[in-house]
Amino acid sequence: MMRTEGTGKSGYHHGDLRNALIEAATDLARDGGPEAVVLRAAARRVGVSPTAAYRHFTGQGDLLMAVKEQGQRGLAETMERSAGARGGSPSAGEAAEERVRALGAGYIEFALAEPGLFRAAFCRTPEAPDGGHGPGPEEDPSRWMYRSFRLLAEALDGLVATGRMPAGRRPGAEITAWAAVHGLAVLLLDGPLGRLAPEQRDAFTASALTTVIRGFTAPERPSATRPAGPAAKDAPEHDVS
Amino acid sequence: MMRTEGTGKSGYHHGDLRNALIEAATDLARDGGPEAVVLRAAARRVGVSPTAAYRHFTGQGDLLMAVKEQGQRGLAETMERSAGARGGSPSAGEAAEERVRALGAGYIEFALAEPGLFRAAFCRTPEAPDGGHGPGPEEDPSRWMYRSFRLLAEALDGLVATGRMPAGRRPGAEITAWAAVHGLAVLLLDGPLGRLAPEQRDAFTASALTTVIRGFTAPERPSATRPAGPAAKDAPEHDVS
DNA sequence: GCCTGATGTTGACATCATTAACATCCCTCT
DNA sequence: AGAGGGATGTTAATGATGTCAACATCAGGC
Hints:
2 copies of one chain form a homodimer. Chain A is mainly alpha-helical. Chain A has helices at residues 19-30, 39-46, 60-84, 92-113, 115-121, 141-144, 147-161, 173-189, 198-217.
């Protein structure tokens, strides 16, 4: 097959563009973020005319979409690697907790290692108006999109299964976990924590993860002035997308 | 003075452009986000030549910066309003906790009410290379920037002062709190929770706030298999910017 | 062995940011 | 008061971008 390789021009017009363009565009995103994903530039890198890209993508937005997918894939892989490479687990509950922590740490790790790709992975897309999609098998984004999200959710299920987290807190928990981790990543990349020493970033990450996990696993405050609680709008329906 | 008003053309060239441009650009951002802040469009709205803007801004990036400031201001004001309008406080500790909660809710409220402005408020800026700044008294961004961040930090101080939150957890806590709230906002705006019923969004928000606050205030798990804790990289140095 | 469709190319257009050169108008200094 | 100067805007031009229409080329099936 020889796909997505530089020497892939088999005498054909190119071999397989599309993948070559995706690779070029991903490189652009790697240093420069989503706004650096310029259709003409990608075509230039591949050594092809700008309009050639329109044979494989509906336009620049579609190309960016492909880059997003690359970014999401990389993120999920880093998270899985981080969770897989964690040390021994004293107990089942401990293991589940450590997995949540490792996934969160992997999330931050990827964001810091590949800031451009990370930003591209979560950049806003004009949202195709549905209906007539151009060339290229445009799959349902929800399958690969936000795979990191599902990883987190499954880890939280483990937290409940081992009894570490009350089942009543489970609904919406993946939202909370994702929000905390993603917000931290954004804060570290673009926010006031832009230039910070690595060990400080790690410390903040550990602190945030500890706090959120404690929020999931800690018992309810014993001497509460509110038995039912006025802000008891907790535990919402769990329905994503 | 008659500034920033539509009828402000006092026979002068315009009265005060700059503010008129900022207003126009802010309107553009309101529906369309930061990428809709197009210099030429803003100038067109004000009824002025595109290059006229260069007398008041170094370029489009500078104009966007002004819009960011508007967004940050709006965000902080919504948060303060939300925190100020909260009900009675049974105890000091309870009040501090409710303030944190109200600030977070205000954060989300603004993000949902003004999605374009919110995104503009946190959009990436090329970061002026320091040194020769163009026209316009370019103040230090850290003063108005991230005012919401400071609000959150002060509320957390209150949490410690009333004894609700152990002092040892305070360092880095504003990072955690900000991350959770900001991540949730992004998730609701651009993420998988894009189109969700309002009451569900409120429920998720309440759930996230409850979890994080519990993480701040809950006692350490009593029957822990780890007395000192292997993941005790908590409590990092507190140094922003 | 030619025709059809996939794949690329050239040319053109509209928009954008930005600069240079020029015009205008108010304010201040003498 | 009147002239100059600086602030404020305008026109013209440049280079980059996304995108479309028309044309060229190559592979493989009838």
